[in-house]
Design goal:
Its EC number is 2.7.13.3. Keywords: Kinase, Phosphoprotein, Transferase. This is histidine kinase. It is an enzyme of class 2 (transferase). The protein is of the alpha+beta class. It has 2 domains: 85 residues; 153 residues, Histidine kinase-like ATPase, C-terminal domain (Heat Shock Protein 90), CATH 3.30.565. Strand 6 and strand 7 form a beta hairpin. The protein contains 7 helices and 7 strands; from the N terminus they run αααβαββαββααββ.
């Protein structure tokens, strides 16, 4: 049965919310990690200075005490606000069950086409289907990752461009490669329709860190890791071919 416009819009809204949730988790993780190292260093050096400064220098001792107290307060904030906020998505739970791969691909492509690609006159083409394959994994999570990969490709494509999904299903793994010609400026062009949040699209235009993907693609990374697979993003360089690749084992690992 074809989805009704109402049910499709609800699903798209949920997919956008999941994308934002996992990006938030990634940002909070970076904040927690990147702040702890300098805070620990400040705390350690405060103790070193304390041993070097005469105890009779009350003002200096109070200043060092204030530094240590400030560091401890910042660490407590990280633990009570940042780390607890991340608890919901820190460990991605997957519910494995066999499912037909072709149906999932068709639904994801249709959702992206209706929600964004048609409005941007972007053509979506799928190669490698039908596969006839059955995958043992979390269907909902893999569908979310594939939807996000295709949506990001459309977001980062020029009006009227083409996006290709290559599917490679074997007895060992299922691979999805989304390829297109990069148009990074389209991510922040307010003259065209968008689905992803402005902050997410703006950050995706920044140069990639080695071995990392854009923050908005954090959900794809987490889904791949939870299934024992891999996710990779190639850089976005104006006018050049680029790609996203997701690979998940065909059975539980």
């Amino acid at each position: 049965m074809a989805p009704t416009p109402h049910s499709r819009s609800e699903r798209i809204a949920r997919l956008c919310a999941e994308t934002a949730l996992f990006m938030r988790d990634h940002v909070l993780s970076r904040v927690s990690h990147d702040l702890r190292s300098p805070l620990n260093a400040i705390h350690s050096w405060a103790y070193v200075l304390e041993r070097k400064i005469e105890t009779v220098d009350a003002a200096a001792q109070r200043a060092l005490g204030g530094i240590r107290t400030g560091v401890e307060q910042q660490v407590q904030l990280l633990e009570t606000l940042v780390d607890k906020t991340r608890a919901e998505t820190r460990k991605l739970h997957v519910e494995r069950a066999p499912f037909a791969l072709d149906a999932l691909i068709g639904e994801a492509v249709d959702d992206v086409r209706v929600a964004l690609a048609d409005a941007r006159a972007v053509t979506l083409t799928v190669h490698g289907t039908p596969t006839g394959a059955t995958l043992d994994g979390d269907r909902e999570r893999i569908a979310q990752a594939l939807w996000l990969m295709l949506t990001f490709a459309v977001e980062a494509s020029a009006q009227g461009a083409a996006v290709t999904l290559d599917v490679n299903a074997t007895a060992a793994a299922a691979g999805f490669a989304v390829a297109w010609t990069a148009a990074p400026q389209a991510l922040t062009d307010e003259g065209v329709p968008h689905l992803l949040e402005p902050f997410a699209r703006a950050q995706a235009r920044e140069p990639l860190e080695a071995g990392r993907a854009a923050w908005v693609l954090s959900l794809c990374q987490r889904v791949a890791e939870a299934h024992g697979g891999r996710f990779e993003q190639q850089p976005l360089v104006e006018g050049t071919a680029t790609a996203l690749a997701l690979s998940v084992p065909a059975t539980a690992v």
